[in-house]
Amino acid sequence: MMRRRLRAALLAGALATAGLMTVSATAPQAAIAGPQQIAAPEGARIATPDRSPVAAPDWSVALIDSTMARYSPSTIGGWSYPVGLYLYGQYLTYRRTHDARCLSYIKSYVDRFVKSDGTIDPSFNSLDSMQAGRLLTILHHETGQDRYRKAARKIRDRLTTYPRTADGGFWHADTSSRAHQLWADGVYMVNPFLVEYGKEFGDTTYANDEAAQQLYVYGSHLQVPSGLLKHAYDESKTASWADPRTGLAPEHWCRAVGWYSMAIVNVLDAIPVNHPRRDQLVSILRKLAVGLEKYQDPATGRWYQVIDKGDRSDNWTETSCSSMFTYALSRGVQQGYLDAHYAMVAQRGYRGVLAKISTGSDGRTRLTDISIGTSVGDYAYYVARTRATNDFHGLGAFLIMNEQLRGE
User: Which of 65, 128, 185, 369 is catalytic?
Assistant: First the structure.
């Protein structure tokens, strides 16, 4: 207890120094080269006009500085999973750099929604609404303030009454339009939060079992023989997109599979080595890795918006899912879940994603070719989605990937 109080006191001082209650947009502070710089792996030596070698920029720091310059904690957006994903990536960078501005920014954002008594407004009637709950466990861990435990507990308690399929899978949302549906996206929205909640608050028995069960149930429905996962499954087989025989969506949308790939690695990292679901989850991940290697674009190292149809002229390589797959494969090798040769697949993916980041004439980062938020649809629907720049889906996935692979 004394240790936590000391840590909280030290953090409070650091946050005060960083201007916790008055965080404002500031200009990027990373050492970045001039306009439209071509990305290079961090730690690489690149030539300047006078031919003297310099280190490539710290892309995580540059991206965060640019994003904090564009948005304050009050203008970055509401309680949502894309913002939650981005701020989780920012937290990973904070853990490396110990830049108090990063953590104070996260706290200022969360405190817009969490009152001093721990009350939090969202009703958590969808899995999407739960993803930013990871920030609650982070802030409790960093500050020791009980308000964050109380807020996180609301999500934990909501799962007790949350609707499920007959075999226990959480519906994507508690609405008639999403009833009986499992979307691959959903496993990332709740299960990493769940295992982190269990560890932080001494609830690992429930949290680990539930998270592993969810990954297994979703995988058992969505994974096909190629190893890839379909975007979604409808137990009732009544959704407009559902195959009337299997209940499956028609396509392998890349970010949906990316969400699953990151979630399964996060859950494997959390559950004990003797967990009864562990071998099943490792098997799902290994089959998925086979499919990802098969469909990685050999020219760019990235993956296509519709993963297995890269031969179509209107398909395009998408940055957020490519970051997610790169992270999951690299982490899977590092943790011993995957064969070592997948490290090279991850390296190709990393180089491919780095080709999508640059700095503009304003000195701020630009991350391109990110699919905006997407529902379940057919091939034409996916390839027609807007290819955004600096969308939070891509920014967050990039940070998670870059913190895993930078310097390799």
Answer: 185
